[in-house]
Amino acid sequence: MKVLFITYYWPPSGKASLHWPLDIMTHLHKLNCEPIVLTTKDETFTEKDESLLNKVNPNWKVIRAKAVEPFNLYRKFIGKKPGEKLIASETISLENKSLAHRISIWIRVNLFIPDARIGWYFPAVKEAKKFLSKENVDAIISIGPPHTTHLIAKKLSKKFSIPYYPVFIDPWVDIVYYQNLKRSSITKKIDNQLEKSVAESARKIIFVTESMKQDYIKKYPFIKEKSFVLYWGYNEEDFKSISLSPLPKEADFDNQKVIVHAGNIFDYQNPEMLWKEIKERFSKGEKFKIKFIGTVAPLIKQSINNYGLQSITEYFGFLPYHKMLEELTNADYLLVCASEKRHVPGKLFEYLRIGKPIIAFGNDNEEVKKILDETKSGWLFRYDGELNGLFDKLIYNKPDIELIKKFDRKNIAEKLNDILIK
Known about the structure:
- The structure is a single chain.
- The chain is of the alpha/beta class.
- 36% of the residues lie in helices and 15% in strands.
- The chain is built from 15 helices and 13 strands.
- It has helices at residues 19-29, 70-77, 88-91, 99-111, 121-132, 148-160, 185-201, 210-219, 272-283, 298-306, 321-329, 347-354, 366-375, 401-404, 409-421; strands spanning 2-6, 34-40, 61-65, 139-144, 164-168, 205-207, 227-229, 257-262, 288-293, 313-317, 333-337, 358-361, 378-381.
- α12 links the parallel β11 and β12.
């Protein structure tokens, strides 16, 4: 079977969302499935992780199409130098009150439909048509966001009569960060029509959480029988070279507690009650270190400063994948913010495999709570809830590693293979 994967991000991009398709393709290839990749030619937004190129099979066909990057114009508009890195969590932050920033947000959420990657649509379709006019494929899998990938898949599916399978990592029209941004009624109407058209014409639809699947079925009842859940998961192979240190056996007043958050963290994910709890304990002489890997929104940094925790906080920025895993293994606690109740953060699965206590924040995120409870891996707290005694007791000391291993992407790829052949 030949499968065309449409993914905007591909090595050497260090974007976290490319790990799922990259690992899934690797495992599918072992199941006699030949993956073909349609991706961008020059993706300039994300940091680079050259080590990920080692995971790409040199025999895979990779089709690259040049994208029109609106973020290059955005840099000029807000006064950044050409090539200067953009911080994902800052591009939609409402803490920045400058007129240029507010105008840029309005343009992004109202004129770029379904997302800021729409400039890739026509070049990607053009390059894919050249390929598909010469070679046959049996299925198309699109990875979104960006949801522009699903529109490309739909177009190619109709042109060449190939079934396509959109994979929804995040919701489309009502993704959580749109809640505080002003989208016009016309924009919403167009976006809803595009989303519905993809749902209607897809052979089967794959969601990475059960809650997102149920939310979409409620919105589009006709997709019930063709909807499936394949969790984001992690890749067991990546942990073979990692030395997993033992868990802390008990709370210790004198030893420093290291808390690590990996991935982008946005304004709306600020766990202020955690900073408050750390501040109170820090003022009594307990030792803490807070580490952020990835981009950190302005409101988070300001909140850290307001609680006087800047001296014990480190901002690493982007780290190559295996360096990130090493930092996780050296932590005492792993922090994850699951603000969107239909979303299970991808980093949660790496956290689970690392085996350190997980502190999660999320209002009404029952799916994250269920995963933590079943695997005995940590606690989920409300953003407005008290955390008294959090560090006085061990969250757990025996995570169920065998249960956690069901999230290995090898197992997930086998399930995807079954979906494709049925």
